[in-house]
Sequence to fold (130 residues):
Amino acid sequence: MDDRIFHLFADGPAPVAPYSHAVTTGDFIFVTGQLPTGADDDPIPESIEDQTHKVMANLKTVLAGCDSKLADVVSVRIFLTKFEEEYDRMNAVYETYFPADRRPARTTVGVTALARGCRVEIDLIAKRGG
Fold:
């Protein structure tokens, strides 16, 4: 039996490509990489700190749409276009969203470009009912 549900939320950020905001299956929620975007015409925040906060807000919106929260996250992937320059600054923001004793597994990758000229993108996996 296929229990996958494909979620696209009206209050979520406008997709920049053909994808669902999240897919739920079994005990897990797979959240598409979120950018620091909102509606199509929203400006992208300038600083890596502001971009990271916006991405985290978008992730929280998508998780809430799946009846979940950041505390349920088990794995995170972060993509940065200015890895060496902005890694520490992004981390300073990121770490405020998770308690030190409950941080998800994580991978961070430097990339050459992201959609809409963004500098950070984050996707994640959460366990339902964490």
